[in-house]
């Protein structure tokens, strides 16, 4: 390698290590966001569910998560062989003890760490649908099973060379043909999921909907208000999520380059527009914009731009974000219409905004979207974006249903009525967030 190559590889390594740390921060930030949205007697449990997912998924990612996601031995394009790189063997150093190179010539171990953090936050997101009523042990079991049977296969299908990617054997290639690119045969119409619209948000949002239905609602759902107990904590969590998301989206360029800068800028303006879009809907519908709405709009914008951050201009990112914020604001009302207890609005924010971002990039992608000069190819891109979104939903819903029903029989999900009334913090963890909390605190 030349001196310039070494400098570039070093810069990429630094950026990716920072990005991995930023994404890891997102899970504790989610704990603050969800914790503030909860009632006083459940705030610790809500935060512990994020930390619990961080513990479980990090461990299993080392054993089989990386291998299932990015192994070379694909099983039907659905998932890779979990034993190929089990325990990260042959993944970090070669026989001579030299670090194996990954993308952009930086060490592969950095990519492993970066992808681990994605698996963690994707699983933790689901917990917001289950506030105040489930056993912590069952949640830990679910975290490991869901990551194994839903997240890792989806990561392989979209990013690891599987069925929903851009390879010659993928769905897009089968529908719309192939082309030659840098000496390789790839899909003529390349599906776009820059940083995780399908893999992260659609899959987690769908899982949240399924669990909310199977586990059932809180005893007081629709009978008494369930207001956030600490809105400053919610806003702090949203701020830290926004900060961490620069690693989530910017790091998905896998290099310290112009694409990372574009993703950074698009993430900023789309999120700002989504916050304004959410607040506008609140003002028109309810008469006043709220701090909870601002925080939720921020998260909705981050979700919407995730699949599109590297493929839009700043102007189209603003359009995508504003629409995403408005749709998510309307989407949180679905739980009242259809009477499913998505406690902290995972479905409204992550599923709705994730679907819009994944489909919207097919309309607005620079020069290739249906509305931005792509012509017939842009229409085909729009169609393939709809298909990968639907496949991700069906896949996540099916596997989540099986996992949830098995756990319902094996360990049980619900606290009993008395335990739920006393508060999940006291019952499951033997502690409370505030020393003035008793069993009757609402």
Automatic annotation (TrEMBL):
Q: Which InterPro entries does the annotation name? A: Ammonium/urea_transptr, Ammonium_transpt, Ammonium_transpt_CS, NH4_transpt_AmtB-like_dom
Q: How does it sit in the membrane?
A: Multi-pass membrane protein
Q: What Gene Ontology cellular component terms go with this record?
A: plasma membrane
**What are the TM regions of this chain, as residue ranges?**
15-34, 46-66, 112-131, 138-159, 194-217, 229-248, 254-280, 292-309, 315-334, 346-365, 377-407
Q: What is this protein called?
A: Ammonium transporter
**What family does this chain come from, according to its entry?**
Belongs to the ammonia transporter channel (TC 1.A.11.2) family.
From the Swiss-Prot or TrEMBL record, what is one GO molecular function term?
A: ammonium channel activity
Keywords attached to this Swiss-Prot or TrEMBL record, sorted alphabetically, are: Ammonia transport, Membrane, Transmembrane, Transmembrane helix, Transport
Question: What subcellular compartments does it reside in?
Answer: Cell membrane; Membrane
Task: Kindly give the Pfam families that the UniProt entry links to this protein.
Answer: Ammonium_transp
What coarse category fits the chief subcellular location reported for this protein? membrane
């Amino acid at each position: 390698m030349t001196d310039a190559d070494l400098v570039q590889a070093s810069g990429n390594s630094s950026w990716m290590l920072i990005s991995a740390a930023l994404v890891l921060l997102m899970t504790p930030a989610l704990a603050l966001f969800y914790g503030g949205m909860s009632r006083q007697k459940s705030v610790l449990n809500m935060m512990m569910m994020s930390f619990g997912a961080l513990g479980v998924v990090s461990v299993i990612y080392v054993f089989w998560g990386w291998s299932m996601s990015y192994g070379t031995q694909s099983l039907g394009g659905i998932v890779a062989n979990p034993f190929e790189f089990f325990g990260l063997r042959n993944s970090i150093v070669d026989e001579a003890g030299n670090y194996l190179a990954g993308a952009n010539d930086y060490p592969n171990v950095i990519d492993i760490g970066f992808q681990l953090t994605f698996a963690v936050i994707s699983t933790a997101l689901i917990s917001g649908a289950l506030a105040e009523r489930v056993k912590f042990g069952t949640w830990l079991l679910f975290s490991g099973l869901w990551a194994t049977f839903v997240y890792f296969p989806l990561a392989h299908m979209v990013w690891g060379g599987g069925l929903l990617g851009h390879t010659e054997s993928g769905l897009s290639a089968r529908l719309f043909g192939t082309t030659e690119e840098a000496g390789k045969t790839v899909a003529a119409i390349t599906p776009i999921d820059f940083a995780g619209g399908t893999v992260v948000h659609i899959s987690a949002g769908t899982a949240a909907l399924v669990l909310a239905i199977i586990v059932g609602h809180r005893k007081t759902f629709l009978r008494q208000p369930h207001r956030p107990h600490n809105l400053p904590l919610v806003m702090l969590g949203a701020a830290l999520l926004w900060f961490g998301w620069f690693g989530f989206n910017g790091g998905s360029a896998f290099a310290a380059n112009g694409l990372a800068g574009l993703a950074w800028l698009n993430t900023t303006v789309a999120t700002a527009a989504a916050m304004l879009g959410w607040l506008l809907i609140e003002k028109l519908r309810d008469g006043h914009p709220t701090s909870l709405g601002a925080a939720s709009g921020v998260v909705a914008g981050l979700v919407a731009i995730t699949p599109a951050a590297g493929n839009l201009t700043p102007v189209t990112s603003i359009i995508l974000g504003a629409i995403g914020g408005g749709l998510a604001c309307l989407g949180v009302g679905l739980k009242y219409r259809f009477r499913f207890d998505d406690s902290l609005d995972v479905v409204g924010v992550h599923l709705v905004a994730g679907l819009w971002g994944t489909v919207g990039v097919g309309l607005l992608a620079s020069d290739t979207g249906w509305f931005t000069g792509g012509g017939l190819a842009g229409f085909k891109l729009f169609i393939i974006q709809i298909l990968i979104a639907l496949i991700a939903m069906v896949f996540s819903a099916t596997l989540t249903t099986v996992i949830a029903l098995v756990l319902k029989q094996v360990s049980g999900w619900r606290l009993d009525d008395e335990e739920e009334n006393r508060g999940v913090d006291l019952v499951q963890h033997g502690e409370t967030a505030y020393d003035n909390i008793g069993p009757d605190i609402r």
